[in-house]
């Protein structure tokens, strides 16, 4: 096979040598526009896992790279005069020039033809090639030429950064943050050879401009950075190797590149994107070169698996790599946004700021950090616990963040786990009875700190379905009191009630008979901010609320609030999410009013805030109130996370203690982006920008998720829904699963606690025994 690689970066060179190893008869040419020793940038970073992949693909090249690596385990974070260090991260740094030289030499040794100082203008110049690799970098001409096929999406990110070097040799991957009168600057620094470290300086665009760097000459800008990070540089100078760039041109914005397709046929041969031409991942997670090399490995592997069927091999390559790259790019997006919004986190204590940085991508979790540096995690857990008023005894293990207490007003929750409100559709005439006693009682005994009843309605016409619970009578109040009294007598859980009104989503069938489908008989009149059908052409039309409707509904919520207190509930939540009545006022998708309750966000919030204030006045001062919001409508023109911060601030000013951050379900046109903990970023923003406690909810399914969220300050509580349907004792089970035994079980179930802990301890021991060595250890032994 005749192969041409356009671009002599890591991906093109590595693919060429792997294919030559696979079949020496392949005729392979790598064409590069620069000279052999020209390169830009300083050092590149790999993880130990990446090195393991290189070892498996070509031990000879891996050994040469390993010899040139500087390896370190530690990350050090400098903020507010403190330096916080953690270990076990397993990074390797190598000069980009050195890496390219190793790959170039290996290619030449194997018989790959290297052509330098040739700027390819047209892939069709190589009409005799069987395969063309477009590895021509970030500004790929080939990608631009065939954009209709590749369908690239290029997003220019919001920070400016400059890639510098220094002879200060850092012994840890160092992140440094400095506040200036213009805003926050940050540095990413790491050693990559015996004499040099990479030193990247970054700042949001508006901060960069305010500091005057846009008009500053290169030498002056470097001097500015040297002065700013003088403490970290210890008198060493910063160096630029971009002699071809002048002034502000050395400061660039990072382009995130995503391509829908990676293969185009030019009429002669398939043209395959690889490396930065196909995708980019922000330098803050150090994965650009990793992705480029792993592209090469996967394409070579696919071709080997399907000899003689190049089309099938390329289809496999695109399918496999696009999924893996998207996973890395999602993590890179999280990391990028963290650095773009450092000011959001700068108010956290330095200890929590550092933890937030370490876990910013959501690839590294609490338990993953524990595997890397157990002592660091335990010290941090002690710090979290002490702030919550907990001191561990000499024979006790550190308290995981999810099991620290949390206090709002006069209510203290024993831990950070919330049983989320979950519709059960099991009431008759709104009356909570034996089913809810069993359902909520079991979950109260299951270990959670706070157990919410499902959305409960203050009038019959506020219900979603005929099976939904109500609180419009003293009989219902007494039914709830029976349940709350049972939970309080049999557990230490606190009980919460969520009050809501279905609005335009009411008068529908119970879920298992047809979710969101209108009742065939017995329907009631629907209310909302403006007339609407939740399901176009299917749902009943709602009616715009009049002032008389507003007064009636407000008064019903106030009465239900009083009865909730009399029933003994510890916590009250006001439901303003998911397209229900109050959400219909807040979202511009459903509020088309032209009076004082429509138009601006302030106007759209007017009625929900009015009802909340009336409820707050009727609810005892010592009991907390939270508000559930849809922090993102997932529809263009709807509520955005920016709006969510403003909504949270408005409810905070009205007396809310906490915001429960959900999203969506306002419009069937929504296009949510799902994934584990996918709504947690909304909680993070609201908590750290609006300055109010939050509940994170959505695809939180294990203790590791909860611990990571709480420890990083992304939320104060975590609401867990479906896992609690599968296992009422989810909290107790998760405690045993992570080896935390200082949790009280119901005394009737104590024998089960002991047995579960023994079984899980045995499983952990077997898993530890079977655990393999790290990829770096394998690479070193192979070398």
TrEMBL record:
InterPro entries: Aldolase_TIM, FAD-bd, FAD/NAD-bd_sf, OxRdtase_FMN_N, YqjM-like. SUPFAM superfamilies: FAD/NAD(P)-binding domain, FMN-linked oxidoreductases. Residues 3-305 form the FAD-binding domain. Residues 402-731 form the NADH:flavin oxidoreductase/NADH oxidase N-terminal domain. PANTHER family: BLR3436 PROTEIN (PTHR43303:SF3), NADPH DEHYDROGENASE C23G7.10C-RELATED (PTHR43303). This is Bifunctional salicylyl-CoA 5-hydroxylase/oxidoreductase. It comes from Acidovorax bellezanensis. The lineage of its organism: Bacteria, Pseudomonadati, Pseudomonadota, Betaproteobacteria, Burkholderiales.
């Amino acid at each position: 096979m005749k192969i041409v690689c356009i671009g002599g970066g890591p991906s093109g060179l590595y693919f060429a040598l792997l294919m030559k190893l696979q079949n020496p008869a392949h005729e392979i040419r790598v064409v590069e526009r620069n000279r052999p020793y020209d390169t830009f940038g300083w050092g590149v970073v790999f993880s130990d896992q990446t090195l393991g992949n290189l070892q498996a693909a070509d031990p000879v090249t891996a050994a040469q790279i390993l010899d040139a690596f500087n390896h370190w385990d530690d990350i050090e974070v400098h903020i507010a005069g403190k330096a916080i260090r953690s270990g076990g991260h397993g990074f390797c740094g190598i000069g980009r020039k050195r890496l390219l030289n190793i790959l170039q030499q290996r290619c030449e040794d194997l018989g790959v033809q290297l052509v330098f100082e040739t700027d390819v203008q047209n892939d069709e110049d190589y009409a005799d090639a069987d395969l063309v690799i477009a590895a021509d970098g970030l500004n790929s001409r080939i990608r631009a030429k065939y954009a209709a096929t590749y369908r690239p999406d290029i997003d220019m990110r919001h920070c400016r950064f400059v890639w510098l070097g220094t002879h200060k040799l850092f012994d840890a991957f160092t992140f440094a943050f400095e506040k200036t009168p213009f805003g926050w600057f940050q540095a990413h620094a790491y050693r990559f050879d015996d004499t040099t470290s990479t030193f990247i300086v970054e700042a949001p665009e508006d901060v960069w401009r305010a500091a005057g760097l846009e008009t500053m000459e290169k030498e002056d800008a470097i001097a500015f950075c040297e002065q700013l990070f003088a403490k970290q540089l210890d008198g060493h100078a910063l160096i630029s190797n971009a002699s071809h760039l002048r002034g502000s041109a050395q400061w660039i914005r990072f382009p995130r590149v995503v391509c829908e397709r990676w293969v185009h046929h030019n009429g002669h041969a398939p043209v395959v994107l690889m490396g930065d031409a196909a995708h980019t991942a922000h330098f803050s997670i150090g994965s650009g070169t990793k992705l480029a090399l792993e592209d090469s490995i996967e394409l070579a592997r696919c071709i080997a698996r399907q000899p003689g069927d190049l089309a099938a091999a390329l289809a496999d390559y695109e399918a496999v790599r696009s999924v893996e790259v998207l996973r890395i790019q999602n993590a890179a997006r999280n990391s990028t946004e963290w650095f773009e919004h450092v000011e959001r986190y700068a108010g956290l204590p330095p200890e929590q700021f550092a933890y937030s940085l370490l876990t910013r991508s959501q690839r590294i979790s609490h338990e993953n950090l524990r595997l890397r540096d157990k002592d660091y995690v335990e010290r941090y857990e002690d710090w979290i616990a002490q702030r919550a008023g907990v001191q561990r005894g000499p024979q006790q293990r550190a308290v995981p963040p999810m099991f620290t207490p949390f206090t709002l007003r006069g209510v203290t929750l024993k831990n950070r786990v919330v049983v989320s409100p979950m519709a059960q559709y099991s009431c008759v005439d709104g009356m909570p009875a034996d089913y809810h006693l069993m359902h909520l009682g079991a979950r109260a005994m299951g270990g959670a700190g706070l157990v919410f009843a499902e959305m409960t309605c203050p009038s019959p016409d506020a219900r979603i379905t005929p099976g939904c619970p109500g609180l419009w009578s003293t009989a219902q109040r007494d039914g709830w009191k029976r349940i709350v009294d049972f939970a309080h007598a049999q557990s230490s859980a606190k009980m919460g009630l969520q009050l809501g009104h279905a609005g335009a989503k009411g008068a529908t069938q119970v879920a298992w008979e047809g979710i969101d489908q209108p009742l065939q008989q017995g329907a009631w009149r629907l209310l909302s901010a403006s007339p609407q059908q939740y399901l176009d052409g299917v749902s009943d039309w709602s009616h715009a609320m009049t002032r008389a409707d507003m007064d009636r509904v407000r008064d019903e919520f106030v009465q239900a609030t009083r009865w909730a207190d009399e029933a003994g509930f510890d916590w009250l939540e006001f439901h303003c999410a998911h397209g229900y009545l109050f959400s219909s006022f807040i979202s511009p998708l459903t509020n088309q009013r032209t009076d004082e309750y429509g138009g601006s966000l302030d106007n759209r919030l007017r009625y929900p805030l009015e009802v909340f204030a009336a409820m707050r006045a009727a609810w005892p001062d010592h009991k907390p109130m939270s508000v559930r919001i849809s922090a993102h409508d997932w529809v263009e023109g709807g509520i955005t996370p920016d709006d969510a911060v403003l909504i949270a601030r408005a409810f905070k000013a009205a007396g809310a203690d906490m915001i429960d951050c959900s999203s969506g379900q306002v419009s069937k046109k929504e296009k949510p982006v799902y994934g584990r903990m996918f709504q947690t970023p909304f909680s993070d923003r609201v908590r750290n920008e609006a300055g109010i406690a939050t509940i994170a909810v959505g695809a939180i399914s294990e203790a590791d998720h909860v611990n990571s969220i709480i420890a990083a300050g992304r939320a104060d509580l975590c609401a867990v829904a479906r896992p609690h349907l599968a296992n009422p004792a989810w909290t107790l089970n998760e405690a045993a699963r992570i080896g935390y035994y200082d949790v009280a079980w119901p005394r009737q179930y104590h024998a089960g606690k002991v047995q579960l802990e023994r079984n899980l301890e045995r499983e952990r021991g077997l898993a530890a025994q079977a655990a393999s060595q790290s990829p770096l250890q394998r690479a070193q032994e192979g070398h």
